[in-house]
Amino acid sequence: MNILVVSYEAWRDTNNGGNVLSNIFRAFPDAELAQIYCSGEAPQNSICRRYYQISDSMLLSKAKGRRLEEKDYSAAGEAEPTAIENQINSRIPGAFKSASQLVRELMWTVMDWKTDELRAFITDFKPDIIFAPCYYYYHVSKVALYARSVAKCPMISYISDDNYSLKQIRFAPSFWINRLITRKWIRRMFAESSLIYTMTRTQKTEYEKLFGRPMKLLCKSAPFERIITEPGEPVRFIYAGSLYLNRWRILEAAAKAIAPLNENKIKAQLHIYSGTKPEPRWEKTLNDGKNSFLHGLIPYRELEERYNGSDVAIFAESFDLKNRLLTRLSFSTKIIDCLNSGCAVLAVGPAKQGGMDYLFENDAAVCVNDLKDLPGAVRALVESPELIVEYSEKANQLGKKNHMKADIENMLRKDFSDIAAGRPVNR
Length: 427
Description:
The chain is 44% helix and 15% strand. By secondary structure, it is of the alpha/beta class.
């Protein structure tokens, strides 16, 4: 089977989107894979060898895109300009960010990126099926729909955030213009998709009513082979992920909760692994060298080793209304990493958020729905090793029940095979 992936991000195991792609397509060891992507990075994974790249800067060049050399991309590639770009974007006020997004999408509208070379890349590969995640960046949807029109094959889409509903708080007119146009392209994507994966039951229910299209749950998988052990001394808390969307505030509160426990003896420490460049006001608390340590982005395999040497994995979602609405239907891939870590999970975030709800309903984490309760939860974990062991086992049990790698890979292979052959999918 030939599978063409059309996505925004480069397929790198060090970024979240690329890590998800690797997690999905390791299920297809016998498939031929190719990717069209729309960012400035180089690929870095051990699964895919064929790529066509169209970045914003390329649109302004004569080429408008390029076919990358077909080779093994498992070694670390070029620096990641998109990571730098995201750090810059995080400091741009929302109104200007939305306006710059409009300008970007206008550029993709007026520039002729549908080149003969892109068409040849698609036709030479002869995909049997297209996998195209759905983004807030709707130019990626345009590329996916173009690829489908050329290849004339079925398409599967995947949406993990609420990029469609109007349940948002924004005051910039440019945001709402972007949102309305994004909704139009999501409708087009879903209308031409034979199956849409989503990550939460809430989103699946809402979107099935909105679109009347076949939808199915798909979360990241893991092997869940870690051996549960007694916590070490000091108790090691770990967080891996971005500090955006005010998640840094939760980690700041966790670091402050740890500090009084270490007055006479180091009983606990927080280690943070993130590609987010910290602002000075964050770094003072998040990297004090005693209670908390802020590390940079590391490869996923190395991160797994860090999880394996930790005792409590932190999952964090923002409490402010703007970001609560933004992540309302989201199910972070970090949840599966936490469940697979062998650690107890400390989940901090608002109730009725997709991921928080899931962990609470399954009693798979120590859940904190109000920051004022965080110091008590941290103290309880540090002073009760048996509580850490109990929730480590509960996390592992939930992972084995719902997220086993073998089970999800079998489902994926059957779904792709059925859709490529024109058979209905078991939902």
